[in-house]
Predict the structure.
Amino acid sequence: MSHDLALFLSKTFGLFYLLGFFILIVIHTYRPSQKARADRAAQSILTTEDSPCP
């Protein structure tokens, strides 16, 4: 295996691997069944003490 072939294979399959991984993460994030969980996580960092001073 030459260096050029190894470089070509790593660039090609690395690209497809990262593209597929990105698509899976986006699908997982924007599923309708994840809305309640995402809303709960977004609100969990906010407490009543985080409001501005009067």
Notes: The radius of gyration is 21 Å. DSSP finds two helices and no strands in the chain. Residues 41 and 47 are 12 Å apart (CA to CA). The chain has a mean pLDDT of 84.
